[in-house]
Design a protein that fits this description.
Layout lengths: L6 E4 L5 E4 L1 E2 L4 H10 L8 E9 L5 E8 L4 E7 L7 H12 L4 H12 L5 H9 L11 E7 L4 H12 L4 E10 L5 E7 L3 H9 L10 H10 L3 H14 L2 E4 L4 E7 L2 E14 L3 E6 L1 H8 L3 H7 L2
Parallel strand pairs: 6-7, 7-8
Antiparallel strand pairs: 1-2, 3-8, 4-5, 5-6, 8-9, 10-11, 11-12, 12-13
């Protein structure tokens, strides 16, 4: 079972006082938190639908895209997950697997309304163009405050069989000063779940940092790549590999944004290392002016 979380406050007398666990009053609150910041459950997601109706009479709580264009179904359960929650998400998966690029765009653009198109939001979120091919694979994530033993057995069995499924539990705590605290625990470590699903994936192997480094060497920009990526790793929140290189993310007002991309796959030794930076998020994240930034880069 997921590890039980216990939290203590450090008092003015330097004594520890345990913060009691409590029930989350409404599942809707958790859903709102995830809509505002989906990185609570995964760094590599973009919400493209909420309460999405399926052709089989169900409603998907949250429908997301990852940076590769694969769909992720998120199902929320405030109380202990019943045994049939796995059947529910698998039913959603049977509908999701056949969604076309056109249908995904329609769902996303309906959700985004007039703010921007899916292609625009995808590029802003991941710093890369929306893939031409979407929904090659899909994943399932159950979000709950606790988990039934039978749910754990079923999810582990499905994961071992190569199905991209996991459970994340959120535990709610109420501190003595009235503040609320939340803690997160995955049933299966995400990297482990991803590796199991990759064994049966229809996709080519995922892009890796090693592949990006090899691209830099192949294109004659290995030393420049190493220096810039190392510097960015020290000043940004985190990095992830893409088709042509590495994207660096920064937390701006509680939202993860791509602030810079290093692209050894589009570089060469004669013109040097190619990179793209996004002026508005970059200057905001680094607390600098456009003039400052222009002087930093060749």
């Amino acid at each position: 079972m997921p590890q039980q979380i216990r939290i203590w406050e450090v008092g003015d007398d330097d004594l520890l006082k345990e913060v009691p666990a409590s029930s989350l009053d409404r599942e809707e609150r958790l859903q709102n938190w995830l809509v505002r910041d989906i990185s609570i459950v995964a760094d590599d997601l973009l919400v493209i639908g909420r309460e999405v109706p399926t052709a089989f009479g169900g409603r998907i709580d949250l429908l997301c895209l990852d940076s590769r264009g694969d769909l992720v179904v998120i199902e929320l359960k405030r109380d202990k997950t019943p045994r049939d929650v796995t059947a529910q998400v698998l039913d959603y998966a049977s509908w999701v697997k056949d969604l076309t690029v056109e249908r995904i765009n329609d769902l996303a653009n309906d959700y985004l309304s007039d703010t921007a198109t899916l292609a625009e939001v995808f590029r802003d979120r991941f710093g890369d163009d929306l893939p031409d091919t979407l929904n090659v694979d899909h994943r399932l994530l159950i979000v709950a405050s606790a988990m039934h033993d039978s749910t754990e057995r079923i999810v582990r069995y499905l994961s071992d069989a190569g199905i991209g499924i996991n459970v994340v539990t959120f535990q709610h705590f109420s501190a003595s000063d009235g503040k609320e605290l939340m803690a997160r625990v995955f049933l299966i470590e995400p990297t482990e779940a991803e590796a199991k699903a990759a064994a049966t994936s229809k996709r080519a192997p995922r892009d890796t940092f090693e592949r990006s480094r090899s691209l830099a060497d192949e294109h004659g920009v290995g030393e420049l790549y190493e220096r810039l990526v190392k510097t960015l790793s020290e000043i940004t929140e985190y990095q992830y590999p893409t088709k042509f290189g590495v994207s660096s993310m920064g937390d701006i007002g509680g939202t993860e944004r791509v602030i810079m991309r290093v692209e050894p796959g589009r570089s060469n030794s004669s013109s040097g290392l190619r990179f793209d930076y996004y002026p508005q998020p970059f200057t905001e994240y680094t607390n600098s002016s456009p003039e400052d930034v222009s002087s930093w880069f060749p």
